[in-house]
Automatic annotation (TrEMBL), chains A, B:
Record protein name field: Beta sliding clamp
Family named by the database record: Belongs to the beta sliding clamp family.
A Pfam short name: DNA_pol3_beta_2
Subcellular location: Cytoplasm
Length: 377, 377
């Protein structure tokens, strides 16, 4: 391998590939980044066995020549170490050149590094994902969907399927569901164009979290392909592959109650800040439960801890109807849900002290957040 | 106690006092902040037993009334919890009001907190420091002195005196010395005005670090008073008290060699970046040693690790004279020292492969950094 590449552009791409690479890996070669230089492109590959990222760098970007390949070749180099070097080198360009036995000389400015690598033939092949089960979503829409649901996946491995987001494919709609069994986020997307024949796929929350960091908030399409065990996201020069979670996702459709007893419409930001304040006392006493009392015309948040003190804050409602109510909930779940309803006004429907309640935008029902109360009464 | 205070100003002062307060304290009451409200001022006190901070808030600041005291009184409240509440409350002002038995009601916007406190009579008295042994330094100069020396104190408690900076008082000069026995920083300050009769005082590095975060880069004077065991820094409405370290500070005056064998003058920033790059390889192989080779007209940094690779970088010298040299040093110590010589060009004097070398500004000898080489040859 012998090539020269624009350092700033190369650093960005390396940083993206790093998102799939872990130093704590059972397979030591996976702590490396694979470089495949061709006559007219350089491919970067990183993988932690669960997520794999492949980025193809062309010789020209926006009519500027950023890559000159003098001699094709392959290499596997320690990923973080190599990226740090490229980042800190002087000079606008960096040169890579094979020396003996898997080693690569990395030069820029007046620096010359020689880095020992691994045998590229030992790097595992990335999973194959065919193009049959295919779907397109604009990257900005995909980011929104991830932001509205991904926070609610379970962080516990007790029920592995709950660590993922369940994508359900209907004829004209896709549903995205995440739950840790204490709260649930459901996003619905109207989509008539997809060619997906499977019923559902469970995508690991960690994969969606990393994908969200790489794709930009633009109207460029992300093409998504599903195979038996894998999902592939294609976005510009990026291929992002994740394994799917195996197992049956619980049926959550019956969780949503109908006919609320109490409906509260409230300013999202003001409510979020009030809960943040009141939760200070709950957190100081080592839990996250705060109490809400609704009577005919007042909404009061409160928390009480004999050792530490107590707090009460009245919040102003935009609209309030139905039965009086006392309910306790986890303040963090409430704040997460409010942040995931990106509208100025939120409608909260309650079905009684012991029943789950739901949050929705006051103007759309694309996204619905459900929270189980805490039994304190 | 019953008072009202401007929230933004109060938050800033609380944040400063917090710098002396630790949650991991042997004396539980010290995790609290003490408030003493008088007819015309509010005093905030925090202490971890080693550092104490006292801030006096007047009723007016810059002709604006920021504090109204309706009823004097004292309280001790959980410091971080109380500060978080004040920070997150709504409204421009916050009200504090004693309720029963050491509790304080904290109100702002529509929030009402009641916080349980401790008995203010049980809060320890701050050490007394008299005004006899006194000295004034502009806060900007004091910050510079701390930045140039404090990084070199020892982080190990093996020799406690080395965790502090030694202030030595001469008739017309003050010397500030910090060393962890691998490197040393010495700052000299011409000062004829001081009225200090003690020979020296060892101030804990941790105290100077916190003080540095509080005082601003201005020409306002800091008045410094020494007593037997304590030092007091007075700055505006702040009193910052630290214990002094007991014991004899080693005599470091004989460490500085004369008549260099090799003298290298080099651009500070370029040299720092080159060392930062070359150290990447050393760090990847788990140590910090890099090698420098000087011959008649070339200066080359290098590092070599059989498993990981090697690196070589030539650096451009501004001036170079004397004997050829090979020397190894800790890259972190070199970078720390370069950052503490705040001049564009640095003069480095070497006295042979095994002897300590020194860094100084090319234009002034107020500050001198000394580093012991690593024996690798």
């Amino acid at each position: 391998m012998h090539l020269e590449i624009k350092r700033s552009y190369f650093t960005e791409q390396l940083n993206d590939v790093l998102k799939a690479i872990s130093n704590r890996t059972a397979l030591p070669i996976l702590s490396g980044i694979k470089l495949e230089a061709d006559n007219d492109k350089l491919v970067l590959i990183g993988s932690n066995g669960e997520i794999s990222i492949e980025i193809t760098i062309p010789t020209e970007v926006d009519n500027e020549e950023i890559l000159t390949i003098t001699e094709p070749g392959e290499a596997v180099l320690p990923a973080r170490f190599f990226t740090d070097i490229v980042k800190k080198l002087a000079g606008e360009y960096v040169q890579l050149k094979s020396t003996d036995q898997y080693s690569i000389q990395v030069s820029g400015g007046k620096s010359n590094f020689v880095i020992s690598g691994s045998n590229p033939d030992e790097y595992p092949l990335l999973p194959e994902v065919n193009n049959e089960e295919s779907l397109k979503i604009a990257s900005s829409a995909l980011k929104t969907i991830i932001n509205e649901t991904n926070f609610a996946v379970s962080s516990s491995e007790t029920r592995p399927v709950l660590t993922g987001v369940n994508w359900q494919f209907f004829e004209n709609e896709i549903h995205f569901t995440a739950t840790d069994s204490h709260r649930l986020a459901l996003r619905k997307l109207k989509d008539k164009s997809h060619a997906i024949e499977i019923k559902n796929a469970i995508i690991p929350g960690k994969a969606l979290h990393e994908l969200n960091k790489i794709i930009e908030d633009s109207d460029e399409d992300v093409e998504i392909n599903f195979s038996q065990n894998q999902v592939l996201f294609k976005y510009g020069n990026l291929r992002f592959i994740s394994r799917l979670l195996e197992g049956n996702y619980p049926d959550t459709s019956r969780l949503f109650p109908e006919n609320y007893e109490t409906n509260l419409v409230i300013n999202n930001d003001e409510f979020l800040k009030a809960i943040d304040r009141v939760s200070l006392l709950a957190l100081e006493s080592g839990n996250s439960a705060i109490k809400m009392t609704i009577d005919s015309n007042r909404v009061v948040l409160s928390s009480n801890s004999p050792e530490i003190g107590n707090v009460e804050e009245e919040v102003t409602s935009v609209d309030l109807e139905g039965e009086p109510l006392q309910i306790s909930f986890n303040s963090r779940y409430m704040m997460d849900a409010l942040r995931a309803v990106p509208e100025e006004e939120v409608s909260i429907e309650f079905f009684g002290t012991m029943k789950p309640f739901t949050l929705q935008s006051n103007t759309s029902n694309d996204v619905i957040q459900l929270i189980l109360p805490i039994r304190t009464y």
